[in-house]
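Researcher: Go.
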Amino acid sequence: MTERPTEKKADPAKTTDRARGERRLGWMLAGPAFFVMLAVTLYPILNAVWLSLFNYRLTDPDNRSFIWFKNYSVILTDPLWWQVIWVTLLITVITVVVELVIGFALAMVMNKAIKTLRPFLRTAILIPYAIITVVSAFAWQFAFALDTGFVNRWLGWVPGIDAQTDWFGSFWPSIAIICLSEIWKTTPFISLLLLAGLAQVPEDMQEAAKVDGATAWQRLYKVTLPNMKAAIMVAVLFRTLDAFRIFDNVFVMTGGANETETVSFLAYRTTIERVEIGLGSAVSVLLFLCVVLIAAVAIKLFRVDLSQMRGDK
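Model: Structure:
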């Protein structure tokens, strides 16, 4: 009895010539900028790590002493740190989820719009994103302020809202305004990233799903979203990292009052207001580690195989 020849299976770990060529081209194009950014950012990061190991107050530089990781122990055992972590995560989750939903809806509208209107829509939708964050925060603070705001007059017909409603007088209204300002400003960024992902969805797959009798929701979950996985990952990753470092809106609107302090604001208050350089550097390093952890978790959860999306065999 003759043995059947075994088929040679392709090694999934083997890199194709196309992938190697694209990787080489990518390094050639992005390499110079990457090394410039690394040179610019590496020293501040290492310097912050080094300063975080000292008991160093700017108003008393002569008493600087090396204390190893005591600053980190002080921060991680302080209930204030976990309070600001919770507030930062709350703002991040609310803004990213709402922006993803609204941004996807806007991307769908722009993708279905008449070709002659698409450039106008893309330009118009970028207006909020083009405004400087501090300017946007002052505008929202002015609109909802108790003395100068006009929102209370506009919403006076809503039960529970009158001329004396203080939006920045307690935790939840303050968080709501901060999140609204973030959503208004950065949703265009999400929508344009998702619009680029929609352009990559093959039309023949959509037509085939229609022929098979798939409903609009079924086509969305079975065809559109799976083919947009890479674009969604990029949008969620970039926006989450940006939202977790929120500072401007909190600084302008509440100044950290009503327990609305975030990690970035804590680092600012510790380093600039209290001039605790060692302790503030430790907060900054922990913020950096949180951002790296979020990025690693997001990439792991999405598990986007770019080689398969390119069509590599």
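Model: The two ends are 34 Å apart (CA to CA).
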